[in-house]
């Protein structure tokens, strides 16, 4: 099976984990601190404003806690987004307010966000679809002008930038994902950033039960009864650990190579699918934008998208669509809400395999299978699509 996502892990990561085991300290410790510092350097932000956490989802819930969201608050977010963002908002009693997205980029524009604002809007949460930065600079300006907190769900955009500025640092709060399907992989893991140093300090405490002194060793330097916790706010256990941080340190050194390979694969898709009638490719990146190339998406007429996906699956090529429009799913179904861009994208879009482990031969297999599928579906009297291997029998 040619997978749509796949981690790229090897001996260096295994050696790093073995060193953690040998140290007898697998929890949060020196490697966690090192990863926070190196990831902060990658973002070009102060290290004390970055917290290594156990998932991007945890970061979204942490953002909701820092904003003290609750009943009566509205939070605007694109309907084309992962359900974790809406869950983090709804769990507080606040109301997710869904905005539309551009049908081609699957990212919201500043106009989409502004149209969805209400008098009760307390925050805006924006995803960078597939690692494409989107209209983030203009959205940040809208939020600053309105005095609204901007949270960047940077799950897809670990290496994405606009004019050299890292995605995740345009807004006030941000969170990244390092799960097993992402560009940078730690197994499970994520990072959290707060622009305000005081909020960053509070985030670090809330990520570990609200403890002001997260380490008993640290507490022993300032208290004669270091075993007594000092908790002034309710928190959770969202922290990362040295085992996953050790993997992350290796992966961070490899990140530029991962992104370069993803870019090359995307370029092959661009080159060899451009002439397939009925297939629409991702729009070119605007000048000054750099993508993490997490997704590569193609779009079809809605009546053939699912048939193409089934054809590819029958030939051991796994595809998918992320993310189904949230305003359509049962938990968030919004009667009467029409978001035409999000709805059209959800009906027409398919993600093709994209990860550094793909060989050029596998990329060619995907391209050939997609081309044959579309041409076969569009041809009169369509019969079953056959692979080259089957034809050679």
UniProtKB/TrEMBL annotation:
<keyword id="KW-0032">Aminotransferase</keyword>
<dbReference type="InterPro" id="IPR015422">
    <property type="entry name" value="PyrdxlP-dep_Trfase_small"/>
</dbReference>
<dbReference type="GO" id="GO:0008483">
    <property type="term" value="F:transaminase activity"/>
</dbReference>
<keyword id="KW-0663">Pyridoxal phosphate</keyword>
<keyword id="KW-0808">Transferase</keyword>
<dbReference type="InterPro" id="IPR015424">
    <property type="entry name" value="PyrdxlP-dep_Trfase"/>
</dbReference>
<protein>
    <submittedName>
        <fullName>DegT/DnrJ/EryC1/StrS family aminotransferase</fullName>
        <ecNumber>2.6.1.-</ecNumber>
    </submittedName>
</protein>
<comment type="similarity">
    <text>Belongs to the DegT/DnrJ/EryC1 family. L-glutamine:2-deoxy-scyllo-inosose/scyllo-inosose aminotransferase subfamily.</text>
</comment>
<dbReference type="InterPro" id="IPR000653">
    <property type="entry name" value="DegT/StrS_aminotransferase"/>
</dbReference>
<dbReference type="Pfam" id="PF01041">
    <property type="entry name" value="DegT_DnrJ_EryC1"/>
</dbReference>
<dbReference type="InterPro" id="IPR015421">
    <property type="entry name" value="PyrdxlP-dep_Trfase_major"/>
</dbReference>
